[in-house]
Amino acid sequence: MNALERYRRRLEPHLPRVRDVVLTAATIALLIVRFVQTGSGSTAAVWATALSIAAATTLMCRRRYPIAVAGVGIVVCAVSGSNVMMMLGICTLSVRRHDRWLWAVAAIGVLTNATSGFLRAGTDGYASYLGSSLFSVLTYVVLGAYIGLRRKHLEGLHERVRHAEAEREVRATQARLAERGRIAREMHDVVAHKVSLIALHAGALQMTAAPDADRVHRSAELIADTARAALSDLRSVLGVLRESPDGDRPDPPQPRLVDLPALVAASREAGIPIAENISADLATPAPAALALTAYRVTQEALTNIHKHAAGAPTTVEIHGRPGDRLTIEIVNGAPAHPVAPSGLAGSGAGLVGLRERVGLASGRLEHGPTPDGGWRVFASSPWPDGQSGSASS
């Protein structure tokens, strides 16, 4: 914003008052010029001019009291014969009102102006003065009505602009919140599983009194590999926050159905005895949303087992085919021994996020304790047939 624009904005609230002062000064100047041109130095003419000048100062209040100012202008027209103040008052009244008061004041103004001109000149018939007065008053009424309608139109445009800006801000805020929630779910789903594996391996080493070198080496390799995988996944998720030069946001690589066995194998390698029964046609392309939902359900269920029931016997069953439904059921028993402390507290957001994901995939999610003290997670979603461009193998 340049200096001229800032000055204009500071001056804008004072412009109506400035215009009133200029208009009042111009009216007083016209009254004085008229008095000088008439050349009448009679006491009545002087008093009439002085009264008109004093009355002209009421134009400063024409916006707040338009009827009163128009009435004062009619009195001035009757006393001095000058109709300037009366016309300005009627114009201001027409800007603000279009009711009986406007037409009553206008009619009185027409009669007063015609009668004053006829009595002072009397060269033509009264009808001629009446017609001329009617034309003049109607001109100012129409001018005032035009100004009023134009002002209302501009105010309506400004109001619509303000509403549009407010709605745009609300939509932008909602979009930011939705994006933050999506990224938070991705961060939780991607990072929590692998971090829980790292904590599980480290906790196992802490609980072992005298681990042998081979076990330490294997655990260190697992921790290093898992940490690198977690870092790679984290970079993929954070990639959506970076904008490419053309303004498009790259999508991170999405999990596929064929990645499910590797996910189960990683948990088995981490020490969870898993019995798997995977009869689903994982090699057939599936919709990206369905594949991502299935992967996140399995990942979150195994993450919770690592946190709360490490070492508990677990069964993983995945069934389904295109044109039917894809079902995932993961059940773990109660842990056979105390769980090594991982230091990872559950936030409670995982299952909530899963319910939202499964709901978006038109499926249903069930989770809860089992009679033997374990936990069961069950998800079922429709698997459409004939997917092509949006499918994920």
Find the CATH topology of the largest domain: Heat Shock Protein 90
> Proportion of β residues?
5-15%
Which range best describes the helical content: under 10%, 10-25%, 25-40%, 40-55%, 55-70% or over 70%?
55-70%
Give the second-level CATH assignment, the architecture of the largest domain: 2-Layer Sandwich
How does this model look, in words?
It comes from Prescottella soli. Its EC number is 2.7.13.3. Keywords: ATP-binding, Kinase, Membrane, Nucleotide-binding, Phosphoprotein, Transferase, Transmembrane, Transmembrane helix, Two-component regulatory system. With 393 residues, the chain is α+β, with helices and mostly antiparallel strands. The protein has two domains: 3-123, no CATH class; 169-392, Heat Shock Protein 90 (2-Layer Sandwich), CATH 3.30.565. It is 63% helix and 10% strand. The protein has eleven helices and seven strands. It has helices spanning 3-11, 15-38, 43-56, 66-80, 84-96, 100-120, 126-207, 213-238, 260-269, 288-308, 349-360; strands at residues 274-278, 286-287, 314-320, 325-332, 364-369, 375-382, 391-392. A five-stranded mixed β-sheet has the order 1-3-4-6-5, covered by helices on one side. A hairpin with a 4-residue loop joins β3 and β4. α5 (84-96) packs across α7, α7 packs antiparallel against α8 (213-238) and α10 (288-308) runs antiparallel to α11 (349-360). It is rod-shaped and about 125 Å long.
